[in-house]
Structure formats: C-alpha cells, structure tokens
Amino acid sequence: MSSPIEESVRRNSESEAGEAETPEHDPHYEPIVSLPLVDIQTNEEDEEELVKIRARLYRYDTRDHEWKERGTGDVKLLRHKVNNSVRVVMRRDKTLKVCANHFITPDIRMNVHCGSDKAFNWSVFADYADETCKQELLAIKFGNPQNAELWKTKFAEAQEIVRTKCSLYTQDQSSDDESSITRSEDTDTPEPKSAERTDEETKKEQGENKDSDGVILKLKELKVESE
C-alpha cells in the first residue's frame, strides 16, 4: 500500500504526461467582413523635412497667466516643394495629435526662455493646432543644448528661405517695387516746351504770310483800277 505522498506524486506525473501528449488547440476563424488598408493623408506629402527633433512644447495661458504643457513629441520644420513656405508641425507621442501647426514668417523672433540654454519662446500670430486660427505664445524645451542650438539654426535658415524664395513674400516685394516706380512716374515734372518752332508751325506761319501778301496785292490792284 502506497503512502499519501507517493499517491499525490503519481497523480501529478500522470496529469503532466497527459498535458504533454495533448496538442495545443489554436482555433482560427475567417473574418466575416474584410477591412481593406486605407492610406491616411497627413497633408505632409508635398513637403520636405528640414529638421526633426524631440522636444516638449508649452503654451502661455492668458486666463490663468501661467505656462501649460501642450505635448511631448517630435517637432519638425516642413518646407513646401512648390511655393517654398515653411511651417512648424509637432505631434504628441502615441496619439499623434497635432499640438503645433503654424507657418514661419520672417518677423518671428526666437528668444531664450528664462535664461536656459535648452529652451526658447516665440509668438505666433496664427496657429492651427486646434483646427482654428489662434494667436499663441509658445515655448519649447529640448533635451540638451546641442539640439536647442540646432533648432535655432534651422529656424533661422527657414526664415531666410521664406523671405527670399517663398512666392507670397516675393510677390509682395515685386508689387511694392512696381508701385514705387509708378509713383515716381506720376510725380515726374513735365518737361518745359522747347523754344524752337517745329516745321509744321513754320510752314503754317509762312502760309499765313503768303495769304496776307496776296490780300494786300489785290487791294492795290483794286485801288489802281478805281483810279
């Protein structure tokens, strides 16, 4: 007769042997509805990436008068291939929700934020992160001073591209030049009339003199006949 301990060991070994002999069952069911792959448009297909750096973005809340975090992710400078406009685009991690989306203009000033060598702030007249045009005061913080310096350099290069190559600003400059030329032409003083007589005026005066001489001769003839 076996002891209780030996009986429990035997039962455990038999159960383990049975599990090893039984193959794992992996049921497979065909999907009822097939979902095709869909290409999601990001509106970045016609743009080229100038720089991409990981950072943390803040916005200044004018109601509470304090800085509030807007998101952490990769901030990018995207240059349009046709009109050479450049915009700042930043998406949050995981959700990929847009937290910054605005165009770069030549008059934006990149300021050092709170004396830090890793943070900057700048004012934006029109940001479309919330799908509505809003004026924002933004601040961005990078992981190290090298990334911060790279961001500042690339931002300045983007401003130069917009100022010299963007069709919106080059057209404005050409129109200003044309308007200045037009104004200068309108304000030109008229040239004084020349004192020299033209050929037509001379011939006209000679013809008038001949007519007057003919009239005088006719009057003399009439006077002789009357005598």
UniProtKB/TrEMBL annotation:
Q: What Pfam families does the database record attribute to this sequence?
A: Ran_BP1 (PF00638)
Q: What family is reported?
A: Belongs to the RANBP1 family.
Domain named RanBD1 is located at 28-164
Keywords noted in UniProt? Acetylation, GTPase activation, Phosphoprotein
List the protein's name: Ran-specific GTPase-activating protein
Q: Give the Basic and acidic residues compositional bias ranges.
A: 183-216
What assembly does the database describe for this protein? Interacts with RAN (via C-terminus of GTP-bound form) but not with GDP-bound RAN. Identified in a complex composed of RAN, RANGAP1 and RANBP1. Identified in a complex that contains TNPO1, RAN and RANBP1. Identified in a complex that contains CSE1L, KPNA2, RAN and RANBP1. Identified in a complex with nucleotide-free RAN and RCC1.
Q: Does the keyword Cell inner membrane apply?
A: no
Q: Write out the GO MF terms.
A: GTPase activator activity
Tell me the function of this protein.
Answer: Plays a role in RAN-dependent nucleocytoplasmic transport. Alleviates the TNPO1-dependent inhibition of RAN GTPase activity and mediates the dissociation of RAN from proteins involved in transport into the nucleus. Induces a conformation change in the complex formed by XPO1 and RAN that triggers the release of the nuclear export signal of cargo proteins. Promotes the disassembly of the complex formed by RAN and importin beta. Promotes dissociation of RAN from a complex with KPNA2 and CSE1L. Required for normal mitotic spindle assembly and normal progress through mitosis via its effect on RAN.
* Gene Ontology cellular component terms for the protein in this record: cytoplasm; nuclear pore
> A GO BP term, please?
nucleocytoplasmic transport
On whether Acetylation is a keyword of this UniProt record, the answer is yes
Alphabetical list of Gene3D superfamilies matching this protein: Pleckstrin-homology domain (PH domain)/Phosphotyrosine-binding domain (PTB)
